[in-house]
Write a structure and sequence with these properties.
The complex is a heterodimer of chains A (668) and B (534). By secondary structure, chain A is mainly alpha-helical. In chain A, 73% of the residues lie in helices and 4% in strands. In chain A, a hairpin with a 2-residue loop joins strand 1 and strand 2. The chains are: A mainly alpha (668), B mainly alpha (534).
Chain lengths: 668, 534
């Protein structure tokens, strides 16, 4: 086991190093390294999840303030599995992608550097997930955070991409500050940097402060609103194989950090549950609402990631609240739903981004009002996007509905089992909000898929769409098959997830015996859902056969239909993204904040005029107004200290010297 | 295979056969109310047979989603039938959490239907798709919540609990829930007042637009799926409204119970009769109401959600709701919500009269001692003033005023009802904080009283017309009266008289002021008051 782990690390780091040296063959080197590491890692993590003992390892290397100590337990293995799967798949499509990007840009692409940073990104994620030492955790976190700066905009095509990179970098740097404070506090209390020391130490004095710092730092990486501001820019500008890693794996690393901190810092208190539920509800609702008014549908995908992270946070808070209210069944249901949702989200979000990037490669646009009619041109990409849209919208019998089923049941039962009115209202409010979020997700993804892929082409851009290369299509089909079949294998997945749910439930204060009933109920629900899925598919096949026989017997004709009798219908008459979502934006105006710029009509006769409807990201504007502008104003003020005159600088040194001498000899 | 399993299969077969009858009944009722003879009850059967024999025409731009929508619709509806209990018989596919799957199956058919509409590339169908997606996104959480409340009563967390273990004490919660589900049935099945299934005008269509380009067997499948969806909704409401037989129809092993086949057929007959009755009721609602403006359709959904929340709270306070006092208090809460949601002044006046009547009856139920003459006289006077004199006075003032301009609100209807619900929840929380014993009278009345006070304040804040603000003031006085009532059992008469005096003075003063103001300024819009200068 340990040798396997070391091999994985060696493959990733070696792949990075050799890609830098390899030059022209860098993509192939990186591909081999990542695919190999991914396959080995999948076997390692699945082995650990299905009942292996936790793996401890250490390397006798130097690290400032800490040691190279690793520990792969159930929680790490759970988060490692999607990382390795995505590493495998995105590594496999890396050479094709790099070739496409090189064709497009010519000599501007630094292929070797791109591939080396790719391997280092995966290595950083693996190290973060397996670190058992505070300093190693921070170092690998930094590696993981810095690498996307090099990877997001390899072609540096326009100012939007450059802006995306800078926003990402700023957010990543600011996000490390709470983590530094967190680890500084924990290390000083525990007396060392090892996680084993943290686990033994009782942090009850400052536990609340640590929780808030962890929520800020890891929440920013996970993408909870209002700390999500980097996500729409970064995820929509990144190329396909990078976006998959960013959305499917890196967000999970943020969640892993939050989970690990809660396990280490101690039993969760009630106000932690309230905070998590509040943040989750806000993030979920605002995320999907901002997502469904976007014109660029890759931004919709990014906002939808924020919404899913919000759902996870809401359910985690609900599980801790159930812990405080002595409802073990509810806690097991919600925790199992959380973990299943994390895996499901990796699957369908990766597929969505892969299909979106396959589309963007040839059409060079992801604006909904310039697309349309793509399903007939690129059926494989379109079909995969449809499958992923159905999964994320929560359509039975796919995987997205499976985790939502458990969450609904958990919240509902929590309200019933609650001792006091507040908890009951919270659980039922969470039930209601989850239902609202699910309804809005269906709206958002029907809008994205239906308007971009179906109907008639709205502009010449959509006529340029082509299918991507075969390996890319195979990758998309693999994800599509996984989305479709995971729903049928719920009970098998439960075997892997139940130990984790038990760990968290015990951390909330339940004894192992009380969890048996909840686990049995969860197993029954998933088993029945799998059977219902098979039954539903059978019914669909029967209905389709009946319909096909009737249509064949009667004879079908393809022709133009009435469609309300327009005499000269054009494709531009179709609904666009903005018109589709207009009623929602108006109804929930305080959260959506759509701005409409109407022209002033001055003359009597009609002239050409423009109406511009935009939905800016209001959290970004809020941060800009309340944080960045004051800081810039302060910086402008202090700019007057830097005059460029050597005389003044020497004067500053003189003043500092005099002050230091006075203080050292006069007071100290 | 047990007898219960065969019975459940029989139920599914009956549902599949009889579902197209419901739209026929609705259309017949509408025709009769409109003075026409109407089409035959079996018209949908004839339509389906005709359509199944036609050859469909497919638009050129469509892909497989256009052809998949009928399949998904029918498969989803049939799968939903296997989850529902039919007339006292457990569903064949029941499991804990199946109510979520029911909502998910409707979501699946909706997903494919909306995509089929967008597939045609037509602007008209895009409009229908947008509206359908919007309203169903709002209706989905409410539907899920209603189903969950239904399952809450049985310990199995499954819809089939409705078949066997409905507790008769919860009849009030069941009635409110049935009403909420009926309000939800109207938009979800595209009935007036949410959608007009008869016209083909752009202003009024949601569901009919989506079906516009389908033809032949596809259209037959979609119409049949719509009929099945109506059947499923009506079946859920029927399960709530019908009493469960005191001895179960099937024992625990699935064999036929003591009531035998006769009992089963009688119960099934009653269920089918109730389903037809619900269709007749839908027909009457469609005939007597006009279709609402599109932006007011969310208000139906908000009212449905508010009543679902009330049903949940009535379920949790189950000990109290069975008693007459509980009924009256429930009526006060319902009238509060209706007042918050009502726009027209006439309806508000009637609701205030109703609230006054209920309030007048409450003292009769709360006094422990023998009803003395004093109390009876006080109650009679109070009843007369609150339920007769004041509404008459308000009606006269209303008649004298000019018609109310639309948009005379600072807060919309939806926001008012939602804030009212939030205020009710807040009152419950305050009640929990007070920590009184649950069976004390004060602890039962306190949350309602506070909720009424908050509703009155919300009415005053949100309305622009002075007359509407008087309504808010009266509602607030009702709330204060409720609050003081348990405390005033000793010196009841003085408290009542003082409160009455308060109300009379206020009403007279404001009435006189209103009449004079209207004569002087031709308007009682409070914004115009702000321009008064001396």
């Amino acid at each position: 086991m340990q040798s396997l782990f070391y091999t994985i690390l060696a493959l990733l780091l070696g792949g990075a190093f050799f890609s830098l040296l390899a030059g022209r063959t860098a993509p192939v080197t990186a591909c081999v390294a990542c695919v190999g590491a991914g396959l080995l890692g999948l076997t390692l993590s699945l082995n650990l999840l299905s009942g292996g003992i936790p793996l401890n390892a250490s390397l006798p290397l130097m690290l400032p303030l800490g040691d190279w100590r690793f520990r792969v337990d159930g929680l790490s293995a759970f988060f490692l599995a999607p990382v390795f799967l995505l590493a495998c798949i995105s590594g496999a499509i890396l050479p094709g992608r790099v070739r496409c990007m090189a064709d497009e840009s010519g000599a501007r692409l630094a292929v070797a550097r791109h591939c080396a940073c790719f391997c280092l990104l995966i290595a950083g994620m693996v190290l973060t997930l397996t670190a058992a030492d505070g300093a190693l955790f921070l170092v690998s976190w930094e590696i993981m955070s810095i690498m996307p700066f090099f990877l997001i905009s390899p072609l540096d095509r326009d100012v939007n991409e450059r802006n995306a990179v800078w926003v990402y970098l700023t957010a990543a740097r600011l996000g490390v500050l709470p983590l530094l404070l967190l680890f500084a506090g924990m290390v000083s209390e525990a007396g060392g940097t090892s996680f084993a020391l943290f686990a033994e130490r009782d942090f009850s004095q400052y536990a609340g402060l640590y929780f808030v710092l962890a929520l800020l730092g890891f929440g920013l990486k996970a993408g909870l609103i209002p700390l999500h501001v980097w996500m729409p820019e970064a995820h929509s500008s990144a190329p396909g194989h990078i976006a998959v890693l960013l959305s499917g794996a890196m967000l999970n690393v943020g969640l892993y950090g939050l989970f690990r901190m809660i396990l280490l810092v101690g039993p969760p208190e009630t106000w932690w549950a309230y905070t998590l539920m509040g943040v989750g509800a806000f993030s979920g609702v605002t995320g999907i609402l901002l997502g469904l008014v976007q014109t660029d549908f890759k931004r919709t995908l990014a906002y939808s990631s924020a919404e899913n992270m919000g759902i996870i946070s809401l359910a985690l808070g609900g599980a801790f609240l159930a812990g405080k209210n002595n409802a073990p069944t509810v806690a097991v249901l919600l925790l199992t739903g959380v973990f299943l949702h994390i895996w499901n989200h990796s699957l369908f979000k990766s597929l969505l981004f892969l299909a979106a990037n396959a589309l963007k490669e040839h059409t060079h646009t992801t604006l909904i009002h310039r697309l349309g009619g793509l399903q007939k041109r690129i059926p494989v990409t379109g079909g995969c996007f449809a499958m992923a849209s159905a999964a994320i919208a929560g359509i039975p019998p796919l995987n997205g509905f499976m985790s939502e089923l458990l969450l609904y049941l958990g919240f509902g039962l929590g309200g019933k089992a609650a001792g006091n009115t507040e908890t009951m209202l919270l659980f039922w409010g969470a039930f209601f909000i989850l239902g609202g979020i699910a309804g809005m997700t269906l709206f958002a993804f029907v809008r994205v898929y239906g308007l971009a892929f179906l109907g008639a082409p709205r502009s010449p851009d959509s006529l340029k769409a082509r299918e991507p290369e075969t390996l890319f299509q195979a990758a998309m089909l693999l994800f599509a098959v996984l989305c479709a079949s995971v729903g049928l294998f719920g009970p098998q997945l439960l075997c892997a997830i139940t130990p984790l749910a038990d760990v968290f439930a015990r951390a909330s204060g339940f004894s192992p015996e009380s969890l048996i009933e909840g686990t049995a109920l969860t197993g029954t629900v998933l088993h029945c859902y799998a059977l219902a899925g098979i039954g539903l598919v059978t019914l669909c096949i029967l209905a389709a056969l009946a319909r096909a026989r009737l249509v064949a017997r009667n004879g079908a004709v393809t022709d133009t239909t009435w469609a309300c009798g327009y005499s000269r219908p054009t494709a531009a008459m179709q609904y666009t993204g903005g018109s589709f979502a207009r009623t929602f934006a108006l109804l929930l105006h305080p959260l959506a904040r759509t701005r409409t710029q109407k022209p002033k009509l001055e003359n009597f006769f009609p002239e050409e005029a423009k109406v511009i409807v935009t939905t800016p990201d209001w959290p970004t504007q809020a941060w800009d107004h309340f944080l960045f502008r004051p800081v810039v104003a302060l910086a402008e003020v202090t700019k007057s200290l830097q005059t460029g005159l050597v005389n003044l600088y020497i004067l500053y040194i003189f003043i500092a010297l005099v002050a230091a001498l006075t203080w050292a000899l006069g007071w100290a | 295979m047990t007898a219960q399993f065969f019975a459940s299969l029989g139920g599914i077969v009956i549902s599949l056969l009889l579902a197209p009858l419901l739209p026929g009944v609705i259309n017949r009722v509408k025709a009769r109310v409109g003075g026409r003879k109407g089409s035959p009850l079996a018209q949908l059967y004839f339509d389906l047979r005709r359509l199944l024999g036609k050859s469909p025409v497919y638009p050129e731009v469509t892909t497989l989603f256009f052809k998949a929508a009928p399949v998904a619709g029918v498969a989803g509806a049939v799968a939903a039938l296997t989850l529902l209990p039919f007339g006292g018989v457990r569903a064949p596919a029941a499991f804990p959490g199946d109510f979520v799957l029911l909502s998910g199956l409707f979501a699946m058919s909706r997903f494919f239907l909306i995509l089929a509409a967008l597939d045609t590339g037509s602007a008209f169908e895009g409009m229908g798709a947008s509206r359908e997606a919007f309203f169903s996104a709002l209706a989905e959480p409410i539907f899920l919540f209603c189903l969950f409340i239904l399952c809450l009563q049985s310990q199995q967390y499954s819809l089939s609990g409705m078949a066997t273990s409905m507790v008769t004490d919860n009849w009030m919660s069941n009635t409110i829930l049935a009403f909420s589900l009926f309000l939800l049935l109207l938009p979800e099945n595209s009935r007036i007042p949410a959608d007009d299934p008869n016209t083909h005008l752009e202003l009024t269509m949601i569901h009919e637009v989506i079906l516009l380009d389908h033809s032949g067997p596809d259209l037959a499948f979609l119409k049949y799926a719509a009929a099945l969806k109506l059947w499923i909704f009506s079946l859920i409401i029927a399960g709530l409204v019908l009493p469960v037989p005191s001895t179960t129809l099937f024992d625990d092993n699935g064999a036929l119970g003591p009531l035998g086949i006769c009992g089963l057929s009688l119960h099934w007959g009653m269920t089918i009769a109730t389903l037809l009755g619900i269709s007749i009721l839908v027909g009457f609602v469609e005939s007597l109401m006009a279709r609402l403006r599109m932006e007011r359709v969310p208000q139906i959904l908000t009212m449905s959600g508010a009543f679902a929340g009330l049903a949940a709270l009535a379920l949790m306070e189950a000990g109290m709701t069975g008693s007459p006092l509980g009924i009256l208090i429930g009526l006060i809460v319902i009238s509060d919500f209706c007042l918050l949601g009502a726009e027209r002044l006439r309806l508000c006046i009637r609701l205030i009269a109703g609230q006054g009547m209920v309030l007048g009856l409450i003292p009769l139920l709360t006094t422990d001692s023998v009803l003395s003459v004093r109390i009876i006289v006080a109650v009679a006077v109070f009843f007369a003033v609150k339920a007769i004199v004041l509404p008459w006075f308000l009606w006269r003032t209303y008649k004298k005023l000019p018609p109310q301009a639309p948009g005379a609100f600072y807060l919309g209807n939806t926001a008012c009802v939602l804030l009212g619900l939030a205020a009710f929840v807040f009152s419950l929380w305050l009640n929990a904080r007070l920590g009184l014993a649950a069976n004390q009278l004060f602890s039962q009345i306190f949350p309602i009283a506070f909720a009424t006070i908050f509703s009155g304040l919300l009415l005053i804040i949100s309305r622009r017309m002075a007359l509407a603000q008087i309504f808010g003031y009266l509602v607030m006085e009702n709330g204060v009266y409720l609050l003081g009532m348990p405390m005033a059992q000793e010196s009841s008469i003085w408290l009542e008289l003082s409160i009455l005096m308060d109300i009379l003075v206020a009403a007279f003063v404001m009435g006189i002021a209103l009449t004079h103001l209207n004569r002087a300024f031709d308007s009682t819009d409070v914004e115009r008051f702000a321009t008064l200068k001396d």
